[in-house]
Amino acid sequence: MSDWEASRPETRVVAAGEDVAPPRPPATPPIYQTAPFLFRSVADLDAAFEEPSVPGLYSRYASPNAAAVEAKVAMLEGAAAAVAFGSGMAAIAATLSALLEPGGHVVMARELYGGTTAFAELLGRRNPGVTVEPVPLDTLGTRLDAVPAPDLVWVETPTNPLLRSVALEPLAARCRAAGALLVVDNTFATPVLQRPLSLGADLVVHSATKYLGGHSDVTAGVVAGPAARLEPLLAQRRLAGAMLDPHAAFLLNRGIKTLFLRVERQSANAARLAAALAAHPAVPRVYYPGDDPVARAQMSAGGGMLSFELADLATATRVVERLVHFRLLPSLGGLESSAMLPAITSHRGIPPDERRAQGITDGLVRLSVGIEAAEDLVADLENALAPESGG
User: Which of 37, 48, 105, 248 maximizes the CB count within 10 A of its CB?
Assistant: First the structure.
């Protein structure tokens, strides 16, 4: 009788059956829901610690599920590598923290997601040597011709929530001439419609919570680019513990498989809605990348996001609360259609005067268009925009 067989049940139950494996590989990667991995020798353990970013050591460092996501995003963006994080903000924070050395200077487009700007400003306050300079989108290119030159330039295109686009190729050329790295948040466009690295960007950031996941059931972030540029981000992730967990990575990997189908349908639906809203007498203005010549030059379609103006916050509130097929959600990019009021949600932390200076009015409504029938979505908006009956 072996020592194993002679041991008591309460000892054997801990490890019994845990070496069972199917004779054939699964059709989809299983969830590796484990923190550490098992080693058979000290030599093997020692070798693993020499390359902690390779899956199979400890899931805070790397996991097979996260590696699958990273491979997919790198392929889609035309990048050498990618690094996955537990949220979009974790990806943004790691990129800024890892790339801005003491004395560093970042120029950020003024028209950014509020969380990005807030973290950069926090970084600047806590690190007096770091300079954070917000610049209006229209003057971003000429700012790069001035002194001092920044170390890093950060943009979104299309922007949130007015869907303005940045011409990436000339901006990237100016960044190279100034010796600055260009980071592009490609969350709204996705690599289905736009690939910033091919236009000269150095790194691409995604809130994978949005279109990459696509089902509003996972929180994640990804950064893609050259492997050497991502090394500081890997170290930052490992030390800060911002790793994407295995189950979330599994869901994200599954979502990415249908990215093309979803984005193509969402883009077609959004184009229909933009045209219907532009023709509606109650809507003075529509913001949609498909109508922007800059976006049309570098995106293969207009995407699933659009915004439109209404008279004031009370009118916008009434309209979104009358919608049936558009859910009121504080996020975007899911396969379901949703509506949001930026003035009281994503941009509520910005002083009203600054919001208005950016063109974000209290009556602005932002739509994330889903995969439902376009005819139903158009009818839903028209019903919500109809005057209330007086009787």
Answer: 248
315 and 352 part of one domain? yes
The CATH number for 318's domain is 3.90.1150.10
Whether 202 sits among the annotated catalytic residues: the reply is no
The phi, psi pair for 250, rounded to 5°, reads -60, -45
The catalytically annotated residue of 58, 60, 143, 296 is 60
The active-site residue, picked from 32, 61, 110, 113, is 113
pLDDT in tens, 51-101: 999 999 999 999 999 999 999 999 999 999 999 999 999 999 999 999 998
What letter would DSSP give residue 278?
H
**Is the distance from CB of 327 to CB of 339 less than 8 angstroms?**
yes
Band (pLDDT 50/70/90 cuts) for residue 9 is confident
pTM, 2 dp = 0.94
Question: Looking at 256, 272, 296, which one is the last position of a domain?
Answer: 256
Cα(11)–Cα(373) distance, integer angstroms: 58
The CA distances from residue 63 to 31, 34, 37, 56, 310, in Å, are 10, 9, 10, 7, 47
Question: For residue 340, is it within any domain?
Answer: yes
